[in-house]
Write a structure and sequence with these properties.
Belongs to the TRAFAC class TrmE-Era-EngA-EngB-Septin-like GTPase superfamily. AIG1/Toc34/Toc159-like paraseptin GTPase family. IAN subfamily. This is GTPase IMAP family member GIMD1. It is a single chain. The chain has one domain: Rossmann fold, CATH 3.40.50. 36% of the residues lie in helices and 22% in strands. It is built from seven helices and seven strands. Strands 1, 2, 3, 4, 5, 6 and 7 form a seven-stranded mixed beta sheet that branches. Helix 2 packs across helix 3. The chain starts with 5 loop residues before the first strand and ends in a 12-residue tail after the last helix. The relative contact order is 0.18.
């Protein structure tokens, strides 16, 4: 946050194949930085950093409007169709250290599909991976991004009804990260107003965490 009239937030997207990590990253950036398409194998094999343009109308400080810049690190999925757990972990840790070494990470976004149930085994695998990746304070720096929320809506579920019917596994996960979650409508995510709403929610999570950042260094 070098410029007093500007704020930068650093995000990383994590999750399984075909959950929409790269598409979610593009939605947050308002661009098409990351490759995203349907594939029978994992699409992303390395980390890449996307940067947004200056975004106005999202946040203010001391009564003055701040320009917001968003940086998103896209990552290979885990489990991955061609990379081992250690390969994915090393790749992501190295990228976090390289891109966010000075400023730190504000939030890791765990991307899940709202139109698919979260199974206990899948959840345990994901949580273990995030713990190893981010360390003991991972809960403070993790939010859940539920993609394909439009499909849940088409099935007649409001956000409240969806959570009422959600599995105990998902509810336990949301509770563990202090209910930091966002529903992302894949049909509307390219709309400016929808993106602004999501970014305001992310900023609120960061504010609730007192603007703390997670500093990651290269693993020995």
């Amino acid at each position: 946050m070098a410029d007093s009239n500007e704020m930068t937030i650093n995000l990383v997207v994590l999750g399984r194949s075909q959950t929409g990590k790269s598409a979610a990253g593009n939605s947050l950036l308002g661009s098409l930085d990351f490759e995203s398409y349907l594939s029978p194998s994992s699409v992303t094999t390395c980390c890449s950093l996307g940067r947004s343009c200056r975004i106005l109308g999202i946040t203010r400080r001391n009564g003055c409007e701040l320009a917001l810049r968003v940086r998103v690190l896209d990552t290979p999925s885990y489990p991955h169709s061609s990379l081992s757990k250690e390969q994915v972990k090393h790749t992501v840790q190295s990228a976090l250290a390289h891109h966010f070494r000075e400023e730190g990470l504000h939030l890791a976004l765990l991307v899940l599909r709202a139109d698919l149930p979260l199974c206990p085994d899948e959840n345990d695998l994901t949580i273990q991976f995030i713990q190893e990746l981010l360390g003991p304070t991972w809960k403070d720096f993790t939010a859940v991004l539920l993609t394909h929320a439009d499909k849940a809506e088409e099935a007649g579920f409001s956000e409240e009804a969806y959570l009422h019917r959600a599995s105990s596994t998902l509810l336990s996960l949301l509770s563990s990260v202090q209910n930091k979650y966002i529903f992302l409508d894949n049909q509307k995510s390219i709309i400016k107003e929808e993106r602004a709403t999501v970014l305001r929610k992310l900023l609120n999570f960061i504010r609730q965490n007192n603007y703390q950042v997670l500093l990651k260094h290269d693993e020995e």
